[in-house]
Amino acid sequence: MRIATYNVEWFDALFSRNGRPLHDGRWSARHNVTRADQLDALGIVFNALDADAVMVIEAPDTNRKRDTVRALEQFADWAGIRARAVEMGFVNETQQEIAVMYDPLVLRARHDPQGAPADLGNDSEPPAFNSVYHLDLDTDRDRDPVRFSKPPLELAMEVRENDAAFRMIGVHVKSKAPHGARNARDVTRISIENRRKQLAQCIWLRERVERHLIAGDPLMVLGDFNDGPGLDEYEKLFGRSGIEIVLGEGEEGVPPDLRLIEPHARQALSRRLGAAPTSARFYIEKEKRYLSALLDYIMLSQDLAQGATWRIWHPFDDPRCFETPELREALLTASDHFPVTVDFDPEVFAGKEKVSAAPS
After folding, report:
1. Domain of 266?
2. Helix, strand, coil shares of the chain as percentages rounded to 5?
3. Would you state the pLDDT for residue 359?
4. What is the DSSP track for 19-68?
5. I need a surface site. Which of 86, 122, 161, 296 has the fewest CB within 10 A?
6. Is residue 276 part of a domain?
7. What sections of the chain are H helices per DSSP?
8. Are 223 and 170 in contact (CB under 8 A)?
9. Would 270 be classed as within a structural domain?
10. Please, which residues have CB within 8 angstroms of residue 301's CB and are 6 or more apart in sequence?
11. Does residue 341 lie within any of the structural domains?
12. 9 and 57 Cβ atoms separated by less than 8 Å
């Protein structure tokens, strides 16, 4: 079975209000790329992935006039891919939803949020992701409110062939970029504030991860974390990256069965001063160069990770992508992020009891 995560830059700009793909010569929201060019490229990439499920980060918007599910269903039909069913969770206000596209002949997917609503839970249970989490961000002993601008998508997944069940959490954690900074002092202040918020979101997510792992749930956490070990100098102020927090790395006393597995993250952690895998490529206008970073991950619980194979579909670093010109160019045209996939055998957890359900 193959699962993918893919951040599609400005996906929403490729659809009409009724969700129809806008395959025309007008400019997309990507620089110097038409809507037809981006859609064609995405069609090539999605077909090459041939995934049983794709966690789409920055999926088309849902609002009074637009609908994420309708747009992605019509895209799947237009592109001719088998991952044609769509499930999404809490709607956000950023025009960048989180949704999963999946093959309904292979999988069942159900939005299944965990945790109590705001002010109804207790300190032993992390609240629902569309709620508020309280954490002291600046060591003043006051617990600050933390919110997800894009609440993670929590899914109960089942494999139709053998009823094997697992949990999936799709994530798009807050960016650390100092947007709105007017001078160097602003850059420092906003960067530190954003990192505090980003780490708080990762702590919140880690609490949910631990509850699933303690319950014995096969678990997959995937998406764009806007973070990785050694990405900026502010990480030194806080000791660990958000990725390490979610994985359960760098904390004493965490047993192996409560850690998540992600080989690209582990490789980056072991090579802070050397070359590391990358999953995104951004053009820096002021410096006239590209910046590459590892931002996209698929983290697996120990049971799911048995025999699993990870792959970043990088147009230059992955030999099969590089040696396939049509796919290589499509990856560069489709988005500033590249897909990450994991292939695993659902038989390794087929005999386990059903995973924990949402509270009634």
Report:
1. 2-347
2. 30, 25, 50
3. 41
4. S-B--SSSB-SSTT-BHHHHHHHHHHHHHHH--SEEEEEEEPP-SSS--H
5. 122
6. yes
7. 35-49, 68-79, 184-214, 235-238, 242-247, 263-270, 319-322, 325-334
8. yes
9. yes
10. 212, 213, 217, 218, 219, 220, 260, 261
11. yes
12. no
Handedness of CA 69, 70, 73, 79 (dihedral sign): negative
Q: Is residue 354 part of a domain?
A: no
Residue 168 makes CB contacts below 8 A (sequence gap 6+) with 3, 53, 55, 100, 109, 153, 154, 155, 157, 219, 220, 221, 222
Span 56-76, pLDDT tens digits: 999 999 999 999 999 999 999
Identify any residues that bridge with 290 across adjacent strands, giving them in sequence order: 283
Note the pTM of the prediction, 2 decimals.
0.91
Q: 3-state class of 233 per DSSP?
A: coil
When divided into structural domains, the chain yields a total of 1
Instruction: List the strands of the sheet with 165-172, edge to edge.
Output: 107-111, 153-159, 165-172, 219-224, 296-300
Q: Residue 293: its pLDDT value, please?
A: 92
Mean pLDDT of 43-64: 97
Q: Give CA–CA dist 35/23, Å, rounded.
A: 6
Residue 297: give its domain's CATH number: 3.60.10.10
